[in-house]
Amino acid sequence: MTVRVQAARFEAGAELNSFAQGLTDVGAVVSFTGVVRDTKGDLQEMLIEHYPGMTESAITKITDEATARWALADVLVIHRYGPLKPGEPIMIVATASAHRAAAFEAADFLMDYLKSRAPFWKKEVTADGASWVAAKDADEDALKRW
Known about the structure:
globular
């Protein structure tokens, strides 16, 4: 299991290839990469803040839970912080399991957790100023499935 919280940009394809390399006893590898979205066309950057140590610990705890619930062979979670431009990758989740249903469900579970509960704070910066991104009811509703 790998959990990384980093400022540096990552290459999703390279990370996924590295993650899957040597996994010969699994039948499924599932991944999701989140990118900075500019919904209004005026986003200059997304500033993501976190508390070092606390964030990694929280993500590790939830990846441990996912591994136990879905008998995963391996998990990768990378989440960035700092200033990110539109189109840049924010995070990647990858899961490996003997069967695809477990890999898909675990990845979905991890994504819902990261979106709603991981200790990150996001601020959108535009030419008009900056504002914190509020939690969305839809994200909270998605987390209730688990």
